[in-house]
């Protein structure tokens, strides 16, 4: 299985980036299918209240899942960096330390989501008819949060190793289990939102068991011992990279939760329509998300090898790929958005509301490809503090104020509320472009070594250290 650990420091950038990105994209498609299947089955075989509950509850779950995934990005970057620096012996302590940290995070999330499920649902301003079902959905997902956290940790490890195929395999297994669970519990036993939550948690548990089995069977370029499973120096390193990303993601998801609350004030049909639209939005954002994750690993390896020029070429290659795909998705949403929302429900007002939101959101499919490629590039350089700062600025100055102002208009329109996302993203592109230019100029003024020289110096330092150890 060693061939699955990719070397991104040589060969065609486009070919290697796309080849690495496609399994990540496939895994993200299947992950998005989790929520989409839940919503589709509940929409067809459950109640309108259950549909609203899954919509609102999944927003809460997304907050947790995406924040954990961004925190785990620190592990991906660190593992890829050690591979690029030819120091795989450091990876064992990274994985062991991360297992301890993420187990503690799971315990905290459990203690928050299970006892406080109903207050969380009320805070989300779930429609009165759906508060009880929303609380049940959140409580069940909170009970299985260990598996959700563990899946994201294992995915980060595999991708840091340059292996994007294995996560695709075990999430495919989980997706099949989730579909079967939804059909049995919701369509068959009529358990509504509770059945959808149980199916999701059980599917994640199967996914984690399969991933651990696969990891144990692999021939890895490092050793993992019991002594690695403790808080160590590597914990500080990956937390230093991942924490700003997690904080930024939490705020971004909180803005979407606030947006969900704004929409919930418009009534049950608007809430359900927005929930359906969000599932379609999740699919529309898959290519930019895959680009961001791929870019971080690709850039981190090249930075570790001292090949900065190749890392920057990868950035522009990724932007080109993302914009091309984004234009196709943009056209599809505008032309067939009503047909897509109609896949989830037969309720005409819900279909109409969902399509209205998609019309406003549509430009996001193009501009996010640019923004996420830039973020992946900065993540690969450990510039995660800046990623957090620009995310805070976007959210606090553009997305939330614009969405709120649109929601309180006398004739509030979901289309206008949807426009808040692309407006914030365009603002973020401007911010990141300015930062990239200033950062590049500063590096030139400081006379940073050329990529090849940097790589030689790194290898020389490692050789010198090795000689010193032998002499001792």
Radius of gyration: 22 Å
Q: Can you count the helices? A: 18
* Overall pLDDT score: 82
**Secondary structural class:** mainly alpha
Number of strands: 0
For the sheet with most strands, the description reads: none
* Helix share bin: over 70%
For the record, give the distance between the C-alpha atoms at the N and C termini, rounded to a whole number: 37 Å
**What is the strand content?**
under 5%
Which outline best applies? globular
Order of helices and strands: HHHHHHHHHHHHHHHHHH
- Quaternary assembly: single chain
Give the uncertain stretches in residue-range form. Answer: 448-472
Please give a structural write-up.
The chain is mainly α. The protein contains 18 helices and no strands. It has helices spanning 13-45, 48-84, 91-113, 117-123, 131-143, 145-160, 165-188, 192-217, 233-264, 268-284, 286-304, 308-341, 348-361, 364-380, 384-407, 414-418, 420-445, 451-471. Helix 15 packs antiparallel against helix 17. The radius of gyration is 22 Å and the shape is globular. Residues 448-472 have low confidence and may be disordered.
């Amino acid at each position: 299985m060693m061939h699955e650990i990719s070397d991104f420091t040589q060969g065609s950038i486009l070919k290697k980036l796309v080849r690495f990105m496609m399994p990540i994209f496939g895994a993200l498609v299947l992950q998005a299918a989790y929520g989409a299947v839940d919503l589709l089955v509940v929409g067809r075989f459950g109640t309108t209240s259950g549909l609203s509950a899954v919509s609102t509850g999944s927003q809460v779950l997304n907050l947790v899942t995406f924040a954990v995934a961004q925190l785990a990005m620190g592990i991906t970057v660190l593992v890829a960096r050690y591979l690029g620096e030819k120091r795989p012996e450091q990876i064992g302590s990274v994985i062991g330390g991360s297992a301890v940290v993420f187990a503690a995070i799971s315990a905290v999330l459990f203690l928050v989501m299970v006892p406080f499920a109903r207050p969380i649902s009320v805070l989300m301003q779930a429609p009165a008819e759906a508060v009880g079902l929303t609380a049940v959905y959140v409580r069940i997902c909170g009970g299985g949060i260990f598996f959700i956290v563990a899946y994201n940790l294992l995915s980060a490890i595999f991708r840091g190793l340059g292996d994007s195929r294995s996560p695709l395999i075990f999430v495919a297994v989980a997706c099949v289990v989730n579909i079967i669970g939804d059909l049995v519990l919701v369509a068959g036993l009529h358990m509504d939102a509770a059945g959808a939550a149980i199916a999701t948690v059980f599917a994640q548990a199967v996914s984690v068991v399969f991933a651990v089995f696969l990891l144990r069977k692999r021939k890895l370029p490092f050793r993992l011992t019991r002594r690695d499973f403790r808080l160590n120096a590597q914990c500080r390193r990956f937390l230093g990279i991942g924490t700003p990303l997690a904080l930024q993601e939490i705020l971004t998801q909180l803005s979407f939760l606030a947006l969900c609350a704004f929409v919930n004030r418009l009534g049950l049909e608007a809430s359900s329509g927005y929930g359906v639209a969000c599932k379609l939005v999740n699919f529309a954002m898959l290519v930019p998300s895959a680009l961001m994750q791929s870019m971080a690993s690709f850039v981190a390896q090249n930075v570790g090898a001292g090949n900065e020029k190749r890392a920057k070429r990868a950035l522009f290659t990724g932007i080109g790929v993302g914009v091309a795909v984004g234009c196709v998705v943009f056209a599809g949403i505008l032309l067939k958005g009503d047909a897509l929302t109609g896949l989830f429900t037969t309720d005409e007002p819900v279909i109409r509301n969902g399509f209205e939101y998609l019309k406003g959101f549509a430009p996001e499919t193009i501009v996010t490809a640019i923004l996420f490629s830039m973020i992946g590039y900065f993540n690969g350089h450990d510039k995660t503090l800046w990623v957090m700062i620009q995310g805070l600025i976007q959210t606090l100055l553009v997305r939330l104020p614009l969405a709120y102002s649109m929601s309180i208009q006398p004739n509030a329109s979901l289309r206008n509320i949807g426009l808040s996302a692309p407006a914030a993203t365009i603002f973020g592109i401007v911010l990141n472009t300015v930062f990239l230019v200033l950062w590049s100029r500063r590096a030139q003024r400081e006379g940073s070594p050329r990529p090849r020289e940097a790589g030689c110096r790194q290898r020389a330092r490692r050789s010198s250290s090795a000689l010193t150890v032998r002499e001792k």
